[in-house]
Structure formats: C-alpha cells, structure tokens
Fold these 2 entries.
Entry 1:
Amino acid sequence: MEHKNTWETYDEKQLKEVDVFAKEYMDFLDNGKTERECIETIVNTIEAAGYQELDTLINKNKPLKYGDKVYSVWMNKSVVMFKIGKRPMTDGINILGAHIDSPRLDVKQNPLYEDGGFAYLDTHYYGGVKKYQWVTIPLALHGVIVKKDGTTVEVNVGEDEDDPVFFVSDLLIHLANEQLEKKASKVIEGEALDIIIGNKPLVIDKNNKSARKKADDNSDENSDENGKAAKDAVKKGILEILKETYEIEEEDFISAELEVVPAGKAREAGFDRSMILAYGQDDRVCAFSSLKAMLEVGKTDRTACCILVDKEEIGSVGATGMKSRFFENAVAEVMNLTGTYDELRLRRCLAKSCMLSSDVSSAFDPSYASSFDKKNVAYLGGGMVFNKFTGARGKSGSNDANAEYLAHIRDIYDKEKVNFQTAELGKVDLGGGGTIAYILARYGMNVIDSGVAVLNMHAPWEATSKADVYEAKRGYVAFLENADI
C-alpha cells in the first residue's frame, strides 16, 4: 500500500492554512515549555472561547446543557475539557487524550553547590533521554519556587535575548580518549548532568555592615565560617543574586519545581520551511492539535472531550498522571451537572466511549534505516499516524485496538478526506514504547493510538512536518464529530 505525500494533496488555500496553523503551534511551544506553562496558556485560550471552570459550576450547582463548554484543571499540570453533546453521556463520549510533559532535567531539592570555581545546580533527568545530547547546548530554567508562607515565585530564565543561559560541560576532545571508548549510555552519566550557573565569586566591601558584624565576632566558630564563606564565594554570589531577584533563600529549593529545558524558540526547518524544529514536540504537538480541534468543533451528538495530562514520560503515575482518578472524577462531576450521574451510568459512559490516544510515532530516518520496517513506519509528510498497537517486543505494555474500531476510523477519515498513515514504532525486538492508551482501555472503551510522526524523538530538538501537524488537527475534528461505535 502506498500513500501520497500529504503536501501533494493541498491546494493554495490549504497551503496557507498549514503555515498559519504552524505559526500558532510554534507560539504554543515557545510559551509552554513546562506542564504549568502549558496549562496557563491552555486555560487562557479556552476561557476566551467560552469554557467555564467546572468547580465554579459545581459550587453554584449550575446544570449543564447541550452546547455548554466546561473545563477542570488538576494541580496546575493536567486539564480536561468537555463540550456537551445532544445525546446523554451514558451513550458514550468521544475523547482526545494527549500528554504535556516532555523529557528534561529536573533540579534536585538540595541542588546548589560549588566546585572548582563554578556554581552548579544538581539535576535528575526526567523521562527517557540520551544523556549525551544534553551537554554543551544552551539551557533555560523554568518553573516555580513556593516559599513557606505559600508565596509562589515564577522562574523563567534563558529565553529572552538578554537572558543568561546555562549549560552542562563536556570533556574536551583532546583529553577524551578514554571517554570515547565508553558505551553511548555511559559517555555522560546521569549524575554528571549538573548545570553550570555561575563563575564569579562574591566580593564583600569592607564597609559592608553584615561583613563588619561578622568581623566583630571573635569566636573560633566564626573564623571557620569566614573560611567557608571564602571557599563558597561563587555559590554565595549566586545566592545573593537569587535573593535580590526572587527574594528566596537556599532552603526554598526544597519546595521548588524547576525544569531545565533547551533554550530558544521553535524554528522552521529546511529551505522549503516544511518542518518545525523545537523542544517538547513529544507530545505537545498532539496536545495543541487536540486543543485546536476542541475549539473548532461545532455542536455534536456525542459529548466531545479532551484530556491533556502530566507524567506520561515516567509511566503516567502520580496525582496528575493518567493513572490517577482525576479524569474519572471529572466525568462523574459533569454527568452530575447534566442530571445523569450514578455509578452505573458512569461505568456505561466510559465503556461506550471512543478515544484517540494522541501521541507521537517515530518517523523514518534514512540515516538509521536498519531500525525500521519500511512497510510499517511513519514518514514525515505522510499525514497523521495510527498505531494499532505500541509496546515492546511481543506488544508488551500496549493497547491493541480491535479491527472493528480501526475500520470505523478509516471510514470516517476517508469520508472527511483526512490524510493518514499506519505505522509501528520500529523493528520488532529493537525496543518499544507506550502511551496512555492502555489506561483508558481498562474501562472497556475503544482506544487507538494516533498522532504525528517525529524525527529525533526525545532529543532536545525534535522535528515534525507542518503538513502532519495540520492533518492531525483535521483528523481530531473529524473524530470528535463522527466517532460512534
């Protein structure tokens, strides 16, 4: 089976729409490099489109009716949106599900130290990464620091042109003979991914009041403290900057969530500008396309739903991951406001629902052709992707969609003229991966993996085709309007 390259199917009007959509997507990536930033951007967008917060409606006991739009945020890291359909939710709902977390470096709770004249932040990598890809590139620091009094301090350093950036150092090639003999997984160890954040020691003026106060003390303990201050002068310089800029102390790192991500904006790639090169496209490409589909879809027979979650890259765990009860609880609350909730009806709703687990798939890379089955791989520019199953080796850990559901999806997309392709992640026995599909499938609903092909997946900079991103949005709209099996 062969499919046309999606670019060949577009007329001039569609080509312009692709570029406009790509620009919106790139702006989304630039404004949402962390889960919290994504949620803030999404909430601002959907509230402007008329979505109401679920908790507000619950407190007012305000009923929901056909056409109403409602959303719920959990811990500022996950969000679910509903557009109420004409039919009761017990008939099932149509769900788009994607994740908004991406591989990165997380700053540890006791991170700041000095060594060799440098100040460092100690990190712990998050998700599946090739650690060597994170050295010597410009890095930015995003996140929040919550002080004991509950004050939240937002941090975003490294994105503006005038901002400083940070980096992880690497051994110079002249001394790297032993390093180059190591396996790629060992060339850079996880504990070596500490970012350099400063090199200038703090110089205290002799007339400085606090310095004079220390000089007046005449204990041996204070002499040790003075020696320590001299030893950690670079670290103390960083702490003074943090105090002046953010009004935080070193202990405030304990209650901080700081993420280290590649610095810089999403860029068009190629002389033809056909691709997008950016951080975090796994899986924000599907999250953005799903969000836009929810905003574009009109009134539907079945309730339309979109859930964008955290923690997929580490197993969908925790209160904000797909394995939590957040989604199920939100569905129950929405059903209650439509006057149809009880436990049995909730179970019927979930079992009769249809879902696209919207996550990325690996794109064929000719430079590493031996890793792919060319007949069963996604190609950049080939349209949105369907993976009947994911998992590893013998499909371990996957959701394997049934043939009837896949036939129903094919029928929808052929009628709506959506360009799509089918794929597997790579050759059998080379590895594998999973999505949130199997978690929703536990309710008994029909679920299939769908999304966008990505080159350089999980690298600091990933590549997608503008055409595929656009087709994903078109496909998600078609699904929300027509899925019913």
Entry 2:
Amino acid sequence: MEKIIKIKAEGLTEKLRVDVFITKHSELSRAQVQRFIEYGKVSINGQRVYSPAAKVANGTLVEFIEALPVEYTLKHQDIPLTILHEDPNFVIVNKQPGLVCHPAPGHYDGTLVNALLGKYLKEEDFQGGGVRLGIVHRLDMDTSGVMVVARNMKTHQYMTEQFSSRLVQKKYLCIVHGGLEENGYIGTYIARDLHDRKKYTARTMSGKEAQTEFEPVEKFLNATLLGVKIFTGRTHQIRVHMNYIKHPVVGDTTYGDKNRDLQLLESLNYSKEGYAQVIPRQMLHAHTLEFVHPITAKRVFFKAEPPADFNRLLKLLRKK
C-alpha cells in the first residue's frame, strides 16, 4: 500500500529546499526524504522532482508517497516497556535492546511505536499519518536507553526543532576496548562508506559534521567504561567515532572488532560458546536526556539506568 502525504507551504518568507521542507513538516529524517526524492516519490505542484535542492515557495503543494506493505495496518502490540515519565505532551521510555523504534522494511511489527500505540499514542493526533507517529529521535535497535516520544503533532514539531537546534543534551554510557586515561574530543565529518552503503565512516573529508566528547568513568584491565556526550545526532555517531579512534564499542558487529571481543571474553574465563551470553549486543546505552519542556519552558532531566546485560558485563570486568 502507498500512502500519499500532502503538505501545503504556508507562511514561508523565503524558498526552502524540498528535502529541508519535508523534514520540517513530517516525521521523516532528511536522509529518508532524500531517498524518496531519488526514487521519484516526491512532487512539487504535481511535478515530480529528483533533486533534494529543488525549491519550495510559499503556497506550493508538496506531495510524497510513503510506501507500506500491501494491506499494512499499524496496530498495537503487547510489548513490555519501562516508562520513566508520561504527561499529555510526551512519554519518556527506557528502551530495551533489541527493540526497533518504528515500523520500516524488515521490521513492520514488534516496534516501539506498536508498543505505545493505543495507550500512549493515537494516530488521529498526528497529521499526515505514517508509521513513525511521535518518534522524534531514534536509538539503534541494539542500543538501550532513554528516549522522548511526542504524543501529538505540536509537541513533535517543538521537540524536532530542539533537536535540530542542538538544545537537547544527550549523554551515553559505553564499554569500549582498550584503556583510555584522559577525556577526549572527536570532531570529524561522517558520511556513508563508499564500500558498504549500510555503514558510515569518519575517514572522510566531506559529509556531515559530527562532534563527540568522552570521559573515562571506570577503567578495567582491557576495557573502559566511557561517559559520552554528542553535540550532533549523526547516524551511528558514537559507534563510528569509537571505531575511528581505535577503541570500538564492545559487541558492535558493524564497527567493532570480533577478535578483540573474543579476547575480552577469554580474559573473563569464558569460551566462544559464551559470546552471546556475555556480549549479546553493542554495549551502548543512552543514559540521560535533558530538554526544554514544551509547556512550562523549563529544562527537564531524565535518566535511564543500564539494563541487566550491560550491568552484568560491568560486574564481570570489575571482578576481573
């Protein structure tokens, strides 16, 4: 099934790029919008456009096609969640590892949106429909931690602007290979890897600016627990940057080092058969989130404690 989304440009004082315009007025990321444009699924005043730089003027009608599986219907699913806070405007979730944020090709069910639909999210509260509803920012499937989900379109737009303006403070915890003794800063560009389109790389002179700060929280024999703060929200940013400085996140199957994972496992007196038990995923957790409340205009702060698998590995490292 394909769903046509129509957005009329109103109140524009200057022309905007079509990819920027759709991103501002939908729940899509800019990268997703650019893929829609590339596939000929975006039009301006009835004319298909194939360049993300095409201009949208005031009064323009912009349409894009959101493709869904045949006869797909977004539905509630009974998936356990840890809700840290809720009010009429947003809900704060401590997302468990293994949970995808919203339906997408390959993951049409069993997502965070499916879990929230009904009690916390209602489709009629979001203009234009779609399957992302209140998702303002995302965590990778195997990254755990704190997320804010908007409960209506007004809050969604407000929070999207905060993230775009870098007013949201996000801090993470991650366990990386090797010893890091001092605080550090990583500033690079991040772009898609030319050799693997599913991956990103910081070894590039172009792309999107990415800034990361880290500090050692706890040091072990052959690993370090880091506190990480990101100033930009690039896809896979922390994982890419840790790989870039040769201290990959433990358990990261995309940017990590399997041999170093196995060496760490051996140092903890486990065989390869214990890999999935001891290191079941990338050891990355979104720890705190701070932003301006959409109604009170006061800064609010939320913390999500790491899940059992993260704490279990920390316990083993401390014991060693």
